[in-house]
Prior knowledge:
By secondary structure, the protein is an alpha+beta fold.
Amino acid sequence: MKMKMHKCKSCNIYTLKDQCPSCEGEVNVIYPPKYSIEDKYGKYRRKLKEQSLNSI
């Protein structure tokens, strides 16, 4: 059984359940994705970050 912390999208409450206990809304896993040396989409993320920094 995996125990991963979740955060509710609407009320920002942290929980271990698959649904928010207060508003019964959607929850997201708060941990970042695991790093991979064979990152398929890395060049696209870097290009997007570069474009967003240049537009400021």
